[in-house]
Queue: 2 jobs
Job 1
Amino acid sequence: MSNITPDDIKHEFLKSKMGIAGILILGILIAVSIIAIITIPIETFQEWNNPGKWILNPKVATPIWVNIFMAEKIPEHQILENPNIRVISENEISLVSHQFGLNFDYDDYPNDFIYVFSAEYSDSPLLEMSVIRPDGVKLDLISTSLPYSDTKTVYEERIFSTDRSIKKNLSLQSEKFGFLFERLSAEDIIFSKNQTNEPLKGNYIFLINLYGVNTENQISESKLIIGGKAFGIMGTDELRRDLAVGLLWGTPLALFIGLVVSIASVVMGLIYGVYAGYKGKKTDEIMMRFNDVIYALPALPFLIILSVTISNSIFLMVGFLMVFGWVGIAKVARSMSLQIKTRGYVDAANMMGQKDSKIILKHILPQLLPYAFASIAISVPAAITTEAGLSFLGLGDPSFPTWGQILHDANTFGAAARGLWWWIIPPGIMIAITGLAFVFIGNALDVIINPKLRR
Amino acid sequence: MKKYIATRVATMFGVLMVTLLITISLVGSNMDTILKQGIVFQVRTEISENPAIAESFSSVVEFEEFVQAQIDQRIGILGLEEPWYSPQRIGITMYKIMLLDFGHATFLTSDEGSSDVKDILFEKLPRTILLFTTATIIISIIGIFLGALSSSKVGSIIDRITSSFAIISSSFPVWWIGMLMIFLFAFTYQIFPARATPDIPLSDPRYIGSLLYHMALPLITIVMIGFGSWAYLVRNFMVGIMQEDFIMAKKTIGIKQKKIIYTHALKNAAPPIVTILALSLSGSLGGAIITEAVFDWPGMGRLYFEAITVMDLPVIIGATYLLTVFFLISIFIADLLYGYFDPRVRRGQ
């Protein structure tokens, strides 16, 4: 081992393309983590496993950008929130009318549509929903009276496109169409051309009318969701979760796990190994035997048993990973300190009566720092992949969704068999990119420390 | 040398005992609860199947006392009245496990229907060894060849491709590549089966063919991810050796570069290579848990995973023990080989 000053390392490191690439990727990942922490509220990702939170998203939707490459455009998920509101009062009858305009320009039918509303009324008003299509045809969808109430009340409901009365109303208007639609769902009829069963492009207007007698009615919340087959940048999964949220939040978690585990285990290993090597004799023998014991424990089975029996909390898992991480480093650190301890200045310091702890901290450890940095970088990917592996087996911490857990869900819902590539590929690529950043940095450092590799 | 082997054996045995102790203490309390519940259930069903017993008691209290006495008696026979951490019980459990007597599985059975943990384990073990040993051998052959080749032309295109492939492949998890491979070659292009479990019974003569066919996809995946880092390691050893004085001397004499690499240099790189071979064989057994779960390969790894999902504790203990034994044996062999090749190690310098 030669003496390399920190300046040398910096200088050499900046010359290595691989090292710079690693630093660049790492920088991007850190930026992504910061963006994730700032833009996505913590509550969102804590509610990752709460299905109620994601109810308004479509099921297994592809990412939106797929449409750029497709000749036939996949309908995007749309949530229409700001209707045109008109209030008309004529004699005793009052009418509240909400109009949603929708520009439908896709080559496939939407998945479904849901109308979410909450109405403030008394008595029993009549709710009507109809649609005016681009070809001018008006279809009545539903006409229902809201539950009777004596006093002013607030009533919330969701009207789904699978509602039976919608289908029934449509079949009453079947003379407007030139095909049979017994087996078709409501959205396949509404968004279809009237002679052939193909999607009709253009501007649709959805009308919601609330009729009341002698009362002042109001629709306070009004949302029309056109369930698409494409959603967001990364699509959604079977449980309607926005995968972009999971992928973004996975970044700080993976960096946290990888860095904490590798830094802690390298520090532990260094101190342990250097102390054993410096002390020598009996201490060394006993410490190295203990090291052998930990080294010979099969790590993965033990991690699995620990997470099953003790707890699957992410912090405990970080601790368990550390327990198995420091062993190899301790061995190398010991053999390095055996060499350094024979040098003149260590002897001199010893003769001057300096304390052991001071000699180790001041004279031996600084010599090992380049090696320490390289091993921190090199051991990060292993920590990340091990955690991902445990999560993939379903042993992860459910309150912190990691990339491994997304892949676990993908595997449970048979994403491979169903061809849901956007559920499988991005999390794995994120794991690999994160690993790659650290492997690049580690290798660049390694080449500087071991000049033999450079030729 | 004898002293060296003796200390290694002693250490290994110590490690085995420590592993067993940790495993038992982690699952011990759960195991007791499950066993006791099993006994209660057993007694209750026996009594409800035989109404005459219940009718022979005049009061409910008396009847309950009888049931409790029955339960206590059986717990006593099994020696469960002492807590699991009493030295006696731990001693007996460890002694039994050492003799490969793991008891009966709670839920899982072998393909033939035996619930003896030993039967289950020895049915699954050969399959894991078949898959992972084959993979490791293929990986090491490709790796040694590629490594030697790229070390002979440092800086060439082959060297660069090997190195970058090694670095890139090392950061992909094998099981994720496995998922991708299943996605691509089992569903999108239907070349290989998605589940690696052969679907014909053992007795059928075509079983071996089917097994090999089902093995193809996991084997390709493991080899694809594995050989890069092997080649890179071998290359680095060889580059180091090629700078030694004796190689320089051989070069100046005028021995051909090819001969130097494949005979003299490779021979000197053998000790670390053989050591890593032994270690990676055992390491692959541990990694098998996730890989086998992805490919549904009916080996030890999947068994382990299944045992954990249903908390079948005897199987967990047995599988951990067997995995540890294999791991230790291969570490031991690696140590011996290293000592054999490098005399400095065994003299403890």
Job 2
Amino acid sequence: MEIIIVGCGKVGQALVEQLGEEDNNITVVDLLHSKVREITDRYDCMGVCGNGATHTTLLEAGIDSADLLIAVTGSDELNLLCCIIAKKAGNCQTIARVRSPQYSMEASYLKQELGLAMVINPEYAAAAEIARVLQFPSAMKIDTFAKGKVELLKFRLPENSPLVGCAVKEISTKLHCDVLICTIERDDDAYIANGDFTFMEKDVISMIASPNNAYAFFKKIKYRAVPVKDVMIVGGGDIAHYLCGLLQRSGTSVKIIEKDAARCEELSESLQGVSIIHGDAADKDVLMQENIETTGAFVALTNLDEENILLSLFAKSMTEGKLVTKVNRIDFDSVIRHLDLDSIIYPKNITSESIVRYVRAMRNTIGSNVETLYQVIKGKVEAAEFIIKDCNEIIGKPLSQLNFKDNVLIAAIMRGRKVIIPRGNDVIEKGDAVVIVSTHLGLNDITDILL
Amino acid sequence: MNYRMVGYVLGMLLMFEGIFMAAPILTAAIYGESELSVFIGVALFCIGIGILTSKLCRPKTKTMFAREGYLIVAFSWILLSICGALPFVISGAIPSFIDALFESVSGFTTTGATILGDVESLPKSILMWRSFTHWFGGMGVLVFIMAFIPLSGGQNMYIMKAESPGPSVGKLVPRIKTTALILYSMYLALTVLEFILLAAGDMNIFEAINTAVATAGTGGFGVKNNSIGGFSSYTQIVVTVFMFLFSVNFTSFYLLLRGKFKEALNSEIKVFFGLSILASVIIFLNTRSLYSGNAEALKHSVFTVGTIMSTTGFSTVDFNAWPEVSRSVILLLMLIGACAGSTCGGFKISRIIILFQSMIKELQILIHPRQVKKIKVDGRQVEHEIVRSVHVFLICYVLILIISTFLLSFDGHDLITNFTAASTTLNNVGPGLEMVGPISNFSVFSTSSKIVLIFDMLVGRLEIFPILLLFTPSTWKK
């Protein structure tokens, strides 16, 4: 597909990297020469220097033959304007990043009236992801399939867990839990689980289960499973604002520590029932005064990655509670993973992931569609949900009789309201939604998993 | 440094060079020449070594940066030339290795300077190989490879930047692979068109192929001792037109094909054709008395301007015998060259435009010290990095020209011979003046001088920096 990306920031870069690998022709547009050159030097794409909201620049970038325009500059207004102009200039789909709460509230109106294909709000998406892990603190990361009927949970096996030393196949016999272990990350390696794999301490495990089964599973292995009751948030940005709204719905008590007095005023105007503390969280006394030791969860959302990581490390030494850290820079994720910081949220990744998901769904309109797509382990393992429409090679045959490629796991079959964690005798039927976990990246069609 | 990646690309390159030898192999087979076995042997040797190297060096990671890109380009061209010289030596056509290397480098860099006095006595397959080196060298061998095999993600842009001529190299379409394919398709189409037009005239098929590929690469190796001089006016005019066409930036052709006439006609092309017309008129007025009619004089002046500006190096007449004014114009044209992004050598008009603007800017700033002024070409600001690199390019260019002229002087020839020999090789033109004029050749130089000229040709074709980086200590530091 021909894709134009306006804005060469971190999200733009992540998009170029992922979409470029999937055989799309990409043109990037930015005002700054240096930004454009940086990206074109690093990735196989074309660069155009200019204002992406002008007709001339878009023509130069090839809007007349483009299939999709993604506007991810720093400014909401510019993004929306880009999309409007692009829509008029060429016949393409448009995606805009809109982050301010005012516009976000009108997302559906914007989509309808401006003809946008997608409005993405990274801050809201990040807040939603944080809210999910706070509901289920045992997991580091939770992705959902089929509107929440099936979850993909990632968690780190605690020390002294009864699961240590067990083999994967013993889970159903010993624990009588209907969960499916998908991948295991140990040190820097990632494995697709087979039955004989034995768990070790500190393994990072991804598993597929329905929410109820996951809850039962964590109870059996004696891992905290109760939703967080009170949350301490450091940094009162947009994510914190959205997060408060989400948390209050579930009755969690929230405390925000923000160092800018004016922002504190703003927050207390727009939020109700949230205690807003004006203070610098980098000051240890402030944290101690606000009882960091007893908090159920500590969420670091300041604008500085370094400060977030440092605060979380401090919180880890002080409290048993759940830790969530926001990190903007994607490049150093391998180092950060080793810090053992529980949940790390990368808003930029969340944004690019959902756009990539959309692009992939756009590419295939026949056969079976990719409904949802998650990166289980970045660049190594993906989980994709397909709706089976018309696919004779797979329908009606027991799974044990199908020839799958190596490292492909049929993780779940959703039929109506029923969720099946598949075994060899199960069959896939027409209309099913199927979750596939695989090391083959960029699956477009369900038949891609067959040999 | 990713040495494996460098080795891998070099292996691929050797393999492709072996495949390129299909052209002389076919010629030898058709004409039943004894060189057939030589070419088959060398081709198999190249393909064998190439496959082996690329297998051994299969890169663990595909990460590479500017450093690897420049090194790959520099080593590729050196290796390409050495292997390209083998058939000349083994077949006995050019027994001395340095002479053969000179011929091979001159071919790949599309210079067209030769050490051979009598080319008509050479086997046809050797002539074919000489001409074909122009064709592959013109657009770039690595660009050719990139059209067919994926080297690595975006990072092979460094290779393209280092191999393609011009101060700022851009892509036509987002993918490097598609860009390379489009470039080579246009290149091939124009070459075939020229071949058909030439074959329709008084050239035979063999002469037409050779002349077409040599014009396309703006090389200039002829198959006749008097170059194009012995052919009909029709042939000479066809060659003139195509020399001008191959001087034009290929991006402009692409824009024309897509119907963007305004963008295609950029200021570089306007300056190029303006200069060509000006130079042709001066030479025409200056040489009119030498020829029987105005048409004849005009034909020779336009042809000579085309051959020198496009850095091809064919000739119809001995322009060395022209009056001083014409000779000076030829020398000036030689130092300018044609458009960036074409197959031509030389300093490039786009650099001249940037330097000229830079000069005006400096003069204005002397008068208005507080003035803020940006250098613009076609209404677009030229980035500071490009302006800086053009300035440094000029410094290196002049230094290399001066040092080469000095080194050549040890042979005891006159200054005009030495200076034009250095500038004609550095700009990949071909003929110079006096002893290296269009009817003479480079065999007058000693072995050491030939090495200097070989260096100049490579430096000129790769636009100085990749070769100079080989001699920069920090390239080799960890």
